[in-house]
Amino acid sequence: MIQKIRALGAAAVVVASCLGGQAVAQTKQLTLCWAAWDPANALVELSKDFTAKSGVQMKYEFVPWTSYADRFLNELNSKGKLCDVIIGDSQWIGGAAENGHYVKLNDFFAKEKISMDDFMPATVVGYSEWPKNTPNYWALPAMGDAIGWTYRKDWFARPEIQAEFKKKYGRDLAPPETYDQLKEIAEFFQGKEIDGKKVYGAYIYTERGSEGITMGVTNVLYDWGFQYENPKKAYQMEGFVNSPDAVKGLEFYKSLYKCCTAPGMSNAYMSEGLDAFKSGQVAMQMNFFAFFPGLYKDPNVGGDKIGFFVNPKQKYHFTQLGGQGISVVSYSEHRDDALAYIKWFAQPDVQKKWWALGGYSCHKAVLNDPGFPKSAPFAADFLKSMDIVKDFWAEPSYAELLLDMQKRVHDYVVADKGTAQEALDLLVKDWQKVFKEDGKI
Amino acid sequence: MSMPSSAHSVAEPSQWSKRLASLIVATYAIVTILPLLWIFLTGFKTPPDSIAYPPKILFEPSVEGYVNLFTTRSRQTPEFLASLPPPQTWYERLVRSRNMVIGGPSKVVPRFLNSMVIGFGSTFLAVCFGTIAAYAFSRFRVPLADDLLFFILSTRMMPPIAVAIPIYLMFRNLGLTDTKLGMILLYTAVNVSLAVWLLKGFIDEIPREYEEAAMVDGYTRLQAFFKVVLPQATTGIAATAIFCLIFAWNEYAFAVLLTSGEAQTMPPFIPFIIGEGGQDWPAVAAATTLFFIPILCFTILLRRHLLRGITFGAVRK
Amino acid sequence: MSALAEQTVARTPRRLALRFRGMSDRAIAWLFIAPTVLLLLAINIFPLLWTIQLSFTNYRANRPNAPIRYLGLDNYRDVLTDPEVWHAMQATAHFVLWSIALELVLGFGLALLINRRFRGHSFWTTIILLPMMLSPAVVGNFWTFLLQPQSGLFNSAIALLTGVDPSSFQMIGDVRLAPWSIIMVDTWMWTPYVMLICLAGLRSIPDYIYEAAEVDRASPWRQFWSITLPMVMPFLMLAILFRAIENFKMFDMVNLLTSGGPGSTTEVASITLKREAFEKWRTGYSSALAIILFVTVFGVANIYVRALNRVKQR
Question: Cys-Cys crosslink for C166: which of C71, C100, C159, C268, Cβ 3.0 to 4.6 Å?
Answer without folding.
Answer: C159
